[in-house]
Write a structure and sequence with these properties.
263 residues; Rossmann fold; seven-stranded mixed sheet; two-stranded antiparallel ribbon; 11 strands
């Protein structure tokens, strides 16, 4: 079954206008959160085996290529930003292949065949893609039968851009997480840009957890494991350090999901 077309009705999601800024933040091997939290969680869920073919959708600068190669698997990364793919090829071209393309329309890429990958990964990219069902349907199309899908994203229950944040309860001496909106899907503006006379803003697409689980099921992808990953990278100081540390340990930053193609 081919992915359904999305091309006429959905917003642009490429990070091309922000590629220089994004690369400055990510660097050679990813941000600190990538290196110490996100990538290790993906690798554990993925459990890549020698000889497997792994597809990384929304690959950016290709920070996942090196660990996939080290596992003995063949890596392919796809991103809509030509600038980010150029950077990926320059830094990691010997570790895999990188293609410019739309993760929602993999059947448009002659290099990608249906049912040709053992695993597909979204590493902190699924929340930049809209619509969700198009991205997941394309991933399912690329997976072989019994192949697996791994998603690593900021936790949609606790980390809603502009609709959640930390608060302080002075009476109980507790730091808490405040969530103002959750169930309503949102297109949240993040970072403004101006490039070649064009102005715009990047967007993150918030969806409740049920949207991801239900969309996976509709694509024939059966969830078998999730992991919730706290942020434990900070050095805590001051009189609130114990409360802050406890809050970071209890309220996860990332959510990891693994699902298997059932047919």
């Amino acid at each position: 079954m081919k992915p359904k077309s999305h091309r006429k009705s959905n917003p642009k999601t490429s990070w091309e206008p922000l590629s220089q800024w994004y690369d400055g933040w990510m660097g050679q091997d990813g941000s600190r959160h990538h290196r110490q939290l996100a990538i290790p969680a993906v690798l554990e869920l993925l459990d890549a085996q020698s000889g497997e073919r792994i597809l990384d959708l929304g690959c950016g600068q290709g920070v996942l290529a090196a660990p996939i190669q080290q596992a003995g698997a063949a890596y392919t990364g796809i991103d809509l930003s030509r600038s980010l793919i150029r950077i990926a090829r320059k830094r990691h071209g010997k570790r895999g292949r990188f293609l410019v393309g739309d993760a929602r329309a993999l059947d448009d890429l002659p290099q990608i065949e249906a049912q040709s990958f053992d695993a597909v990964v979204f590493l902190l990219s699924i929340q930049d893609m809209q619509p969700l069902d198009a991205a997941l349907r394309a991933a399912a199309w690329a997976l072989r039968p019994s192949g697996r899908l791994v998603i690593l994203m900021t936790h949609p229950c606790f980390r809603i851009p502009r609709q959640s944040g930390w608060g302080w309860d002075g009476n109980r001496k507790l730091q808490f997480r405040r969530v103002d909106r959750y169930l309503t899907p949102l297109q949240v503006p993040l970072k403004a840009y101006a490039q070649d006379g064009t102005k715009g803003v990047s967007r993150s697409f918030h969806r409740p957890l049920q949207a991801y689980i239900n969309a996976l099921g509709e694509c024939g992808l059966l969830l078998d494991r999730i992991c919730e990953i706290p942020s434990d990278l900070k050095q805590y100081r001051g009189e609130r350090r114990k409360a802050k540390k406890r809050a970071d340990e209890e309220i996860p930053l990332f959510l990891g999901i693994r699902a298997w193609k059932t047919s």
